[in-house]
Design goal:
globular; single chain; about 300 residues; alpha+beta
Length: about 300
């Protein structure tokens, strides 16, 4: 069998395994993947970007089911569940990527409408006007913006929920409409981009998709390096169970997480691998640089085998 580029370069992992206690008390985030199509696109440039109508729309969101709600005072039964999860709400819309680390899940029970009967609505939302305000910017194509609105609205009948508690599960068939709105609030309240959500399914963890963007590619290299530098903080910030963490980061399927997983990810990508899509082969120099820098840092982490 042929050797990988890293083997030919003579790169060997320096593994100092540190056994960490199982974090069984960590709540596992609930995640969903969504997809659809852009149904309306304003002629105006959204953050300087033009997204044509009928562009594909896809992404995912996560929420911590243990989040304590903030109750909105008023006639309606509305609860807001603030979320602070790195990469917790993101989407690709045509040639645009949208990434939110700070957002909220809003549950409206029997919300009165301007016309027609009340509705039950689940909203996943980043909005600069939220109270409390988001702690992180809305990142569009890698650029942070402190003003903007990105949301998904799932609207059902008033009989769908009996309270504004977080629902145990979300099924697209339970809702009468599922829409996404994105605008830069210039002018305030404008709808620059409207998408129809046609698919909503529980998020499936894929080995090597460390940043949870739905793809295994070069972007996961830096994410895995970040995870290995402080595995506990990486796990707790993203509300990952031990099994979730293994599903993402245990690239070599050894039931441990060490810098050997980084070498496996680099080798897989160099050979055009990736569990969901093929990726361009990184240059030998890039692979060598990343491997040398990482291995010379002398750190690695592992978690106990839960079996």
């Amino acid at each position: 069998m042929g050797r990988s580029k890293l083997d030919r370069c003579g790169i060997l992992p320096l593994i100092a395994i540190v056994v960490l206690p199982v974090q069984s008390s960590l709540a596992s985030a609930v995640g969903y993947s969504f997809s659809g199509l852009v149904s309306f696109s304003s002629p105006a440039h959204l953050y300087g970007i033009t997204v044509p109508a009928n562009s594909p729309f896809s992404g995912q969101f996560f929420f911590d089911p243990s989040t304590q709600p903030i109750t909105v005072q008023g006639a309606a039964d509305i609860s807001i569940y603030p979320q602070e999860i790195p990469g917790g709400f993101l989407a690709t819309v045509g040639n645009m990527t949208v990434d939110c680390d700070s957002y909220a899940i809003e549950i409206s029970n029997d919300l009165a409408q301007k016309s027609g009967p009340p509705k039950d609505i689940v909203t996943i939302i980043y909005w600069s006007g939220l109270n409390p305000a988001p702690q992180q910017p809305l990142v569009v194509n890698g650029v942070g913006h402190t003003v903007g609105r990105f949301e998904i609205d799932l609207t059902g009948s008033s009989s769908l929920y009996s309270s504004s508690a977080l629902p145990a599960q979300l099924r697209l068939s339970d809702f009468m409409s599922a829409l996404s709105i994105l605008n830069d609030e210039v002018p305030v309240g404008a709808v620059d981009l409207l998408s129809t959500v046609t698919s909503l399914t529980p998020f499936v963890y894929h080995r090597g998709d460390v940043n949870r963007d739905g793809h295994v590619n070069a972007a996961d290299i830096s994410s895995l390096m970040l995870a290995l530098s402080d595995l506990h903080n990486y796990q707790s910030a993203r509300k990952l169970s031990d099994d979730d963490l293994l599903a993402l980061c245990d690239v070599d399927q050894s039931r441990t997480i060490t810098n050997a997983d980084l070498q496996s990810l680099l080798s897989d990508l160099a050979e055009g691998g990736g569990s969901m899509q093929a990726v361009p082969e990184p240059s030998s120099i890039s692979l060598l640089f990343l491997a040398v820098v990482f291995c010379s840092s002398y750190f690695s982490r592992t978690i106990l085998n839960r079996l």
